[in-house]
Amino acid sequence: MSAPVHAPVLLAEMVAALEPRDGKLYLDGTFGAGGYARALLEAARCAVVGIDRDPDAIARGRALAAHYGDRLALLEGRFGDMEALLATRGIAQVDGIALDLGVSSPQLDDAARGFSFRTDGPLDMRMGTAGETAADLVNHLPEVELANLIFELGEERHSRRVSKAIVRARAAGPITRTGALAEIVRRAVPRAKDGIDPATRTFQALRLRVNDELGELDRGLASAERLLAPGGRLAVVAFHSLEDRRVKSFLRERASEAAGTSRHIPATTTRRSPTFRLLHRRAVRPTDTEMTANPRARSARLRSAERTAAPASSTSDGLAAMGGC
Question: CA spacing 20 to 30 A to 243: which of 10, 127, 205, 292?
Answer without folding.
Answer: 292
